[in-house]
Write a structure and sequence with these properties.
The complex is a heterodimer of chains A (about 400) and B (about 200). Chain A has about 400 residues and is α/β, with parallel strands linked by helices. Chain A has three domains: about 180 residues, 3-Layer(bba) Sandwich (FAD/NAD(P)-binding domain), CATH 3.50.50; about 110 residues, FAD/NAD(P)-binding domain (3-Layer(bba) Sandwich); about 80 residues, Enolase-like, domain 1. Chain A has nine helices and 26 strands. In chain A, the strands form seven sheets. A five-stranded parallel β-sheet of chain A has the order 3-2-1-7-19, with helices on one face. In chain A, helix 1 packs parallel to helix 6. With about 200 residues, chain B is α+β, with helices and mostly antiparallel strands. Chain B has a two-stranded antiparallel sheet. In chain B, strands 2-3 form a two-stranded antiparallel ribbon. The longest helix of chain B has 26 residues. Chain B is elongated. The chains are: A alpha/beta (about 400), B alpha+beta (about 200). Chains A and B meet through helix 6, strand 22, strand 23, helix 7 and helix 9 of A and strand 2, helix 2 and helix 3 of B.
């Protein structure tokens, strides 16, 4: 069986290692746009903060894979012919397949002002991090208050540069956590020395020599060496425009990770999968979900027929001064919230419950059993509100759930 | 795969396993000097106190596929191929906290390793002791039989055999009295009664 994998990041690599582990007699081709060995995208903010080197960022060594895996680096998939079962790259090479995995990933959203200067970056590829490294001297602005924005800010702090954080919402992490948690995170960031502008957007950008001047919507002007934009990602679906695969925002897949064409599978940030909490198709573009989807795609390619249970939105951010884990939906108006905040420890536990199910949680500086709650969300386990109340107050450990049932 | 088998109903919460675990992962591996080391070794097994004062030993299950391995963005968490034990490479770990979010059993903590770096910290099934032919430290420390080391299937076979024996005894006892039991619960209480008689 010939399998072609487009994309050598989280989902692609996970699928490849699943395939090679399960079956020996398959021919795999893995096509990567990058010219370097596969690296972990999530580590880029740490790379920027010089905590990991160019070598440490690599997560897979192609030399260690068996001979039946062919690696193609530096080629971009431009056309997929579903009738002839062929994939074409920009260098004119064609690869035949029996089964195809689209792990095209997502690309960072580029606001229009990015075109005005070469000192405004996203942080999505290794070349971005290297580019920032070259141009950064002593000041930086981070635009966007999501997980990537805060992680980038932390990376800059690790370098000895205290950045300015500009966000359009009124508190950080506004897409994932509720206002209370967001404001606590904001206070922590302020304590770290980060200057924060909330409810602000960039109106205009001017460049003089090697300094950028950002004119904000509150009429203030911030000057910096570089600006890093972290305004979210959007799936890369341009490559598959004329193939007849169903696409909404991302590639639509069924529970076996198949697209609307039977032999073409999709996994990772480029596809819309079932969201367990919101109960509809969503894009939860995070590394663990992509790896998981890659695993399920690989297994289903080999006809094991294991349905993918679905993903949830979750993320973890850890700095020297705080560790926040958030998962599920914390912004549901109908949900009941259980909150416990210990000011002296700066510790927050928050769980949102709808009916008899936990639908969201946020754990600040108390990661010990956050995973158990995430598991309960993922598997829609029924819980009593007394249990949730005790867990939030710290009276019992959520591990008790395993003892009870 | 051989693994540590936990019988929570036997655990009395004495924390001996925690102490031995910390000692066996310390630099000196000696009970008297381990406590004076610069970077204190931390236990990798947790005793969770639950309702009614009962205790529940909670440690890494070495799942397959492992959620922590899936979530790890640096591939610091990996499976040792021969023994199928999940291990953490503290040198690769960048302490991002993803594994704590992914672990469905809440066993991952973040502590300083002897290499002077904070990294994810969890049970390694005493892989060094195993290579010396010794059972894991927590198992040799447990005095009440809550922790044992063996093949899970063999252990379950043993339990099934035990259960089968008492069920057989229960049925035979019933045949003598000639009044069939209506509920499985009745059988169970009968078995309990026979069991206590045997002790």
């Amino acid at each position: 069986m010939k399998i072609v994998i487009c994309g050598a990041s989280a989902a692609g690599l996970s699928c490849l290692s699943t395939l090679t582990k399960q079956k020996k007699d398959i021919e795999c081709v893995i096509i990567s746009e990058e010219k370097v060995y596969p690296y972990s995208r999530c580590l880029l903010t740490y790379h920027l903060g010089r905590e990991v080197t160019d070598k440490e960022i690599e997560i897979s060594n192609p030399d260690l894979f068996p001979d039946n895996v062919k690696w193609v680096f530096g080629e971009r998939v431009v056309k997929i012919d579903a009738n002839k079962k062929m994939v074409f790259t920009d260098k004119g090479n064609g690869f035949e397949y029996d089964k195809l995995l689209l792990a095209l990933g997502a690309e960072a959203i580029k606001p229009p002002y990015m075109l005005q200067s070469d000192r405004i970056f996203n942080l999505r590829y290794l070349k971005d991090s290297i580019g920032i490294d070259r141009k950064l001297k002593n000041s930086a602005v981070v635009i966007g208050g999501g997980f990537v924005g805060i992680k980038t800010a932390y990376g800059l702090i690790k370098r000895g540069i205290t950045p300015t954080l500009i966000m359009a919402s009124n508190y950080p992490l506004s897409t994932t956590v509720d206002e209370e948690t967001g404001l606590i995170v904001r206070d922590i960031l302020l304590n770290m020395g980060v200057q924060i502008y909330t409810d602000t957007d960039v109106k205009e950008i001017k460049q003089k020599n090697s300094t950028l001047y950002l004119l904000l919507s509150n009429e203030k002007v911030v000057d910096c060496d570089v600006a890093i934009v972290g305004k979210g990602v959007k799936p890369r679906v341009k490559e598959i425009d004329n193939t007849g695969i169903d696409v909404k925002t991302g590639i639509l897949v069924n529970e076996f990770m198949q697209t609307s064409i039977e032999d073409i599978y999709a996994a990772g940030d480029c596809c819309e999968t079932f969201d367990i909490v919101r109960e509809k198709r969503e894009i939860n573009a995070i590394w663990p979900n992509a790896v998981e989807q890659g695993y399920y795609a690989g297994m289903n390619m080999l006809d094991f027929r294991i349905p993918y249970p679905g993903s949830i939105a979750m993320n973890s951010i850890k700095t020297d001064s705080f560790h926040l884990i958030s998962a599920g939906n914390l912004k549901d108006r109908e949900a009941k919230f259980f909150t416990h905040y210990i000011k002296s420890k700066n510790q927050l536990r928050k769980i949102s419950v709808k009916g008899d199910r936990i639908i969201g949680c946020a754990f600040l500086n108390d990661a010990d059993c956050a995973g158990v709650i995430v598991e309960l969300i993922k598997h829609k386990k029924p819980v009593s509100s007394a249990f949730v109340d005790k867990v939030v107050k710290g009276d019992i450990s959520p591990v008790e759930y395993y003892r009870k049932f | 795969m051989k693994t540590v088998i936990i019988k929570p109903e036997r655990c009395v919460g004495c924390m001996q396993c925690r102490f031995e675990c910390a000692v066996s992962h310390s630099r000196s591996k000696n009970r008297y000097t381990a406590i004076s080391e610069n970077i204190l070794s931390k236990p990798r097994i947790h005793i969770v106190e639950i309702e009614n004062g009962e205790s529940f030993p909670n440690k890494c299950r070495h799942c397959n596929p492992a959620p922590c391995e899936i979530a790890c963005i640096t591939k610091a968490i990996y499976r040792e191929e021969k023994t199928e034990i999940m291990l953490i490479n503290p040198e690769r770990c960048i302490n991002c906290g993803m594994c704590a979010m992914a672990c469905p059993f809440g066993v991952i903590r973040y502590h300083k390793y002897p290499i002077n770096k904070v990294a994810a910290h969890k049970c390694d099934q005493c892989i060094l002791r195993l290579s010396e032919g010794k059972p894991p430290a927590c198992v040799s420390a447990c005095k009440v039989g809550a922790l044992s080391y063996g093949d899970i299937n063999e252990e379950m076979d043993k339990e099934t055999y035990e259960l089968g024996k008492v069920v057989y005894l229960g049925i035979r006892e019933k045949r003598i009295s000639k009044t069939p039991m209506e509920l499985i619960k009745d059988y169970k209480s009968k078995i309990e009664e026979i069991k206590s008689r045997r002790d």
